[in-house]
């Protein structure tokens, strides 16, 4: 038989059942939580009655592609029916991801619940954008959630350029400029609700 989900060339492969190699179960693997605006990449693993298993799609296997869908949702999300890529919107809640797989008369289905969680979606670094070589600059960072609420977090500070001789205190955000002129990027990273968010500010080092 052939599948009809139009998810690519593999759908058109003819599959013939053979004794001792019947699919018996399918299991989704997917992170239990995704940040708002983020993505999840689920995989489906099919198990056979001869004790073997295989991820779908795989190589040198004669099967149709699985079909992905959202069975239930209180959050905002969409899913690609062919690849299974889950894209979260900005509304939090839960999503029940479903995969369905059909080989002839055999239909296998599995479901997985995913939480769409709030995270920091907007950040702003305050501080000087020009610092003299050998001088210092103090930086602070503000963070907001998707609903506009500001959250007060302690960022971890760094500089993105490894070759610079400038340094920044990773806890208090004080930049000590070296002797090399040019542009560096001051980076602030925060951790909230299980997710990291980061932003940067370009700083010119001048004599």
Q: What would you say this structure looks like, in words?
A:
By secondary structure, the chain is mainly beta. Helix content is 0%, strand content 52%. The protein is built from no helices and 20 strands. It has strands at residues 23-29, 33-35, 39-40, 43-48, 53-56, 67-73, 77-79, 86-88, 93-103, 106-117, 122-126, 130-132, 136-138, 140-144, 150-151, 156-159, 167-168, 174-176, 182-192, 195-206. The strands form six sheets. It has a four-stranded mixed sheet, with no helix packed on it. Strands 12-20-19-16 form a four-stranded mixed sheet, with no helix packed on it. A hairpin with a 4-residue loop joins strand 4 (43-48) and strand 5. The radius of gyration is 25 Å and the shape is elongated. The N and C termini lie far apart (74 Å). Residues 8-19 and 58-62 have low confidence and may be disordered.
